[in-house]
Predict the 3D structure of the following.
Amino acid sequence: MTLLSIRGLTKRFGAAEVLKGVDLEVNKGEVVSIIGASGSGKTTLLRCVNLLEDFDGGEIVLDDVAIGYVKRNGTRRRLGERELARQRAMTGMVFQSFNLFPHLTALGNVMLGLLKVRHMAKAEAKTLAMNWLSRVGLSDRAMHLPSQLSGGQQQRVAIARALAMDPKLVLLDEITSALDPELVGEVLDTIKSLAKEGTTMLIVTHEMRFARDVAHRTIFMDGGLIAEQGPSAKLFRNPGNARLKEFLKRANI
Amino acid sequence: MEQFLHELWIARWPLAQGLLLTVEISVASITCGTIIGLFGGIGLTYGKWFLRWPIRVLVDCIRGIPVLVLILASFYLLTFAGINLTAIESGLLALSIFCGAHMGEIIRGALQSIPPGQIDAARAIGLTFPRILAYVLLPQAMRQIMPVWINTGAELVKASTLLSVIGTGELLFRTQEIIGRNFMTLEFYGLCGILYFLVNSMIERFGKFAGQRFALQ
């Protein structure tokens, strides 16, 4: 069953065309990783899906709902802020730089969306948030501020914060790039366990081994287009595209 | 000394009233000023150009005018517009506007220093912009400006002495009245200075306490 469907997505920053017509389908429960050199448009693609960037052409459909824009009588209109916020809540996102709220504890970070977006009662939100913190192995750090946590712990709180909102799709944007090498493992293990439970994820990553081991399907982006895609095992073993071959060789997998 | 204590005893109520009024005016104007500054700072940071530019011009003008001129203007000029304010009211108005302009600039600085990733993360969990401001941006900005805010409070206490020129019965004005009666210039100005110092050192102490209480570390 198709959960996310991107058709002909285009996006430009001034004169530079960053996405030149991307088509992508993601099924429910599928884990798809996006690899490619920096500047190939991976992160922009992810940010468009969560409406953190406007896009210029094409459409994004999530669970049968057109995201971000409505077409009426041939004109394309951006949805209002309120509606955009409602749609953003359907996807969860984890960032390279964690972006935890520094004035809130780990628990407070996870609870904020539950209280102010999903309008849960405080006790209910707390139970759910604690539940998620313990799933990422941090129930004993619930009352710590982000500044008192290691990078890996902060990123796991960020994962809990995104997942607690019960999103239909989770977007992970280079979530291990800002981590010390010895902290990468704990974050990737968390993602692996989520993948096993059937969470639908779209992952932009530089960890080739991780993409190969966790993602059902891998997409190679080059110059704002999807240059090659296929089942991860096959794509890494037997890359067809010359640029992908070179990219993988340089990534040293 | 005995004579000073005797005169002090006679002047105790006017002095207390003056001190109380000084504190009241300072608290009221920093409260109003902070509210003005919040709107100003938010407008300066996130407003579209047609909101940002008028605020920018206003803030820069007010910050360029000496407080004393602001006080005299709000006392004398508004009467030409048919608005009659008492000395206290026009003093409050001037100090609030002065404080508001400074706070607006301070709050703008604090908001702009918050990494854009904070807004991304708040949007990603589905918060609307007013909620992002209320729960993510302003709490961080307010913690950051706490020391400067306290400092502005102390500045306002000092600036409130200027209200004596329009006849507001605050501490300095009362002191001058008392000196006019008993001619003990040195003693009563000294006392007045000590009282201002006490008020401001209390503010500073509160600031240190609050700074530790709300620190992000």
About this structure: Residues 33 and 99 of chain B are 5 Å apart (CA to CA). The interface with chain A takes residues 115, 117-118, 120-129, 131, 135-136, 139-140, 143, 216-217 of chain B (CB under 8 Å).
